[in-house]
Amino acid sequence: MAIRVLLVDDQPLLRTGFRMILEAEQDIAVVGEAGDGLQALDQVRALQPDVVLMDIRMPRMDGVEATRQITGPGRDGPAKVLVLTTFDLDEYVVEALRAGASGFLLKDAPANELVQAIRVVAAGEAMLAPSITRRLLDKYADHLPSGDDPVPDTLHTLTEREVEVLKLVARGLSNAEIAADLFVSETTVKTHVGHVLTKLGLRDRVQAAVYAYESGLVRPGAQ
């Protein structure tokens, strides 16, 4: 079945461009559009999309609050949110990730990256491009804990290998890349990631990445 996508952006020309790109793919169907967060909530309830391509800065209700309501408790459907940001990285992207977004993408990304991002998010994975993630976290480095801050108690529930996996997730690596780095199977990596999410009470890989930085486990710019 085709991936059902809802386009949310206050610029009609951008929505038209995204629609043209996505409708050229056999496995993707654009089921609707919205010009602000309030319209997006109505459309999510009515259309039940799989993925919401969400702009951040919009009138009436911004993308952060819309994301929070779409992915939060009592949500009406299983929609995943992929946030759109500008080249300079919008200051609200971090808040959108905390609110429940499954990843973010630059508005001027190539068409193939947009299509791939939709597929990745629809499959339940996080869209964490390492280069974008690094720039974003570097920008907010001053707001993240230092290495001298105490490590959260929850981090001690992880095994040594699970900590390794969490660090690699925070760097934006896919399961296949983590498997190659650790010389284990991709199935083993999926098991480790699942354990990490369960033990830390996290929803997905995006929250895991944010947790790794906020806890001080990983520092911006670290390899």
Automatic annotation (TrEMBL):
Keyword field contains Transcription regulation: yes
Domain HTH luxR-type residues, every copy: 151-216
Modified residues (4-aspartylphosphate): 55
Entry-linked Gene3D superfamilies: 3.40.50.2300
Pfam families: GerE (PF00196), Response_reg (PF00072)
All residue ranges annotated as the Response regulatory domain in the record: 4-122
Alphabetical keyword list: DNA-binding, Phosphoprotein, Transcription, Transcription regulation
Keyword Membrane: no
Protein name: Response regulator
Source organism of this protein record: Streptomyces aureus
